[in-house]
């Protein structure tokens, strides 16, 4: 029993809930006070290094989410009618957890290799992936600021594969995709807030991804959104030290070890 049962279908929730969660969680960060003592970059750095206005970022994210919603709707429609994945009966909590772990691994694997290739291939980086890196200093609302083709290949296709391979139901998918969205937004928030559980339970976190966004890190830390498994296996893992700046805030520096 879930709170939306009897009001909207699981398929509708799976399509639109991640979008709503994105704007609620990213909006939460946007409405916070400056919090200079917890920023990974100063506000001066953000203004100087980022080359795209907030209005363009919002438009870019909305465009990606429009494509995402269309693909998700088609995917849920096809799978529910053909019975390709999932069942009408929700499996046990244990089975759902296994499915979510499989989905996390599939998403991590897909995004690592596609993301890395977009850096290796100069044409793809220059014409597609560089749009995301116009935010040298990441912030929450810009988490899904991508070229539309990248949004389709990296996020939307990656999500579809995670759903299909794991065999989860549309109801389980609501939980998984909302969690993935929250994690992605958090990785781009640019804040090292005390008590943030993601920083304790995930090595791939805000500071880890911040290293990737800096010019010296463009060849490292490709893993997203959950675990740094492939970075460590394939030699693209870049450890970092989190140090406090004298003027306040933190800085993620490449580790000397």
Automatic annotation (TrEMBL):
<dbReference type="Pfam" id="PF04116">
    <property type="entry name" value="FA_hydroxylase"/>
</dbReference>
<keyword id="KW-1133">Transmembrane helix</keyword>
<feature type="transmembrane region" description="Helical">
    <location>
        <begin position="160"/>
        <end position="182"/>
    </location>
</feature>
<dbReference type="GO" id="GO:0005506">
    <property type="term" value="F:iron ion binding"/>
</dbReference>
<protein>
    <recommendedName>
        <fullName>Fatty acid hydroxylase domain-containing protein</fullName>
    </recommendedName>
</protein>
<feature type="domain" description="Fatty acid hydroxylase">
    <location>
        <begin position="101"/>
        <end position="236"/>
    </location>
</feature>
<feature type="transmembrane region" description="Helical">
    <location>
        <begin position="135"/>
        <end position="154"/>
    </location>
</feature>
<keyword id="KW-0812">Transmembrane</keyword>
<dbReference type="InterPro" id="IPR050307">
    <property type="entry name" value="Sterol_Desaturase_Related"/>
</dbReference>
<dbReference type="GO" id="GO:0016491">
    <property type="term" value="F:oxidoreductase activity"/>
</dbReference>
<dbReference type="GO" id="GO:0005789">
    <property type="term" value="C:endoplasmic reticulum membrane"/>
</dbReference>
<dbReference type="GO" id="GO:0008610">
    <property type="term" value="P:lipid biosynthetic process"/>
</dbReference>
<keyword id="KW-0472">Membrane</keyword>
<dbReference type="InterPro" id="IPR006694">
    <property type="entry name" value="Fatty_acid_hydroxylase"/>
</dbReference>
<feature type="transmembrane region" description="Helical">
    <location>
        <begin position="93"/>
        <end position="114"/>
    </location>
</feature>
<feature type="transmembrane region" description="Helical">
    <location>
        <begin position="56"/>
        <end position="78"/>
    </location>
</feature>
<comment type="similarity">
    <text>Belongs to the sterol desaturase family.</text>
</comment>
<feature type="transmembrane region" description="Helical">
    <location>
        <begin position="12"/>
        <end position="35"/>
    </location>
</feature>
